Q: What sequence folds into this?
């Protein structure tokens, strides 16, 4: 069943497109990564999907009954500092007036345990727990609703490496257990590789390469994805910290990557948003015939 259908989505800010010509579907139960450097439009895409941002052109269709749940990059700012862990996690239950307090407490404790937290934390405030614990609380707050769709926007980017790995494992376990659809945004290709089944590689608001995560990261075909992956492998830096060392040039190609592409040829002038199927569930937007 298709949960999300996006057709020709574009978001324009004053003088530039934050997103352009985005089209893809997400099936219920998919684990989808969205990867790309800082400023490539990842958060803008999530805002359009979740209808937080409605000033877009194109079509976003959602086939979902429950509210979308979110986990953000910085748990310190996404958790209300005046609320105890109990209230934060229970908020969606407390709205229903019929449920008894004892039952809510039991369910919160159980959910805290499920995300690897001791239920003793229940009456603490966010400032009394660590960054990793806060992110687990944010995840508990989301999964207590038994979500159909969980959207995580750079959920591990503010955490230490060892804590990031734990949170990544937790998301993987929870998605196996609860079977929610997961959209996981990261500029870190290795966590996308570990967690997701499908991936969309964005560059300056456009889809460069998309499809099966294993195929794309093991055998990238689009020049941007190749460069992104090789620059990370050779420097062990995150894409955000990686300078892609090619001078930008003026081109008359419509391809978003043409001003930096090391493989540009005369052929690229004729680029007109072509989508090429590389293999089953693996697509690129590139005109070159000899990739
Ligand atoms: P990412 O999440 O990949 O880092 P964003 O989606 O946040 O990227 O931003 C994409 C581009 O759009 C960036 O260049 C950003 O500066 C710009 N942008 C984001 N929000 C706005 C806004 N409300 N007004 C103008 N420009 C914006
Ligand atoms: Mg972002």
A:
């Amino acid at each position: 069943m298709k949960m999300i259908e996006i057709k020709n989505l574009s978001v324009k800010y004053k003088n530039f497109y934050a997103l352009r010509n985005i089209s893809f579907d997400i099936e219920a139960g998919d684990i989808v990564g969205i990867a790309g450097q800082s400023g490539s439009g990842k958060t803008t895409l999530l805002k359009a999907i979740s209808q937080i941002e409605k000033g877009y052109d194109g079509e976003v269709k959602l086939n979902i009954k429950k509210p979308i749940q979110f986990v953000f990059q910085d748990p310190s700012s996404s958790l209300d500092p005046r609320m105890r862990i109990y209230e934060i996690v229970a908020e969606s239950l407390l709205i229903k007036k019929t449920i008894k307090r004892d039952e809510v407490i039991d369910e919160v404790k159980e959910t805290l345990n499920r995300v690897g937290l001791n239920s003793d934390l229940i009456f603490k405030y966010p400032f009394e727990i660590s960054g990793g614990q806060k992110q687990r609380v944010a995840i508990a707050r989301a999964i207590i609703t038994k979500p159909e769709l969980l959207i995580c926007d750079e959920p591990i980017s503010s955490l230490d490496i060892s804590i990031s790995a734990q949170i990544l494992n937790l998301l993987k376990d929870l998605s196996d257990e609860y079977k929610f659809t997961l959209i996981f945004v990261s500029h870190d290709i290795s966590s996308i590789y570990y967690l997701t089944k499908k991936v969309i590689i964005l560059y300056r608001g456009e889809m460069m390469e998309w499809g099966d995560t294993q195929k794309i990261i093991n055998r990238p075909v689009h020049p941007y994805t190749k460069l992104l992956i090789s620059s990370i492998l050779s420097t062990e830096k995150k894409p955000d910290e990686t300078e892609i060392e090619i001078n930008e040039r003026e081109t008359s190609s419509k391809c978003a990557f043409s001003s930096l592409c090391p493989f540009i040829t005369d052929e690229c002038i004729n680029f007109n948003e072509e989508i090429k199927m590389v293999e089953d569930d693996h697509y690129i937007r590139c005109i070159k015939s000899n990739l």
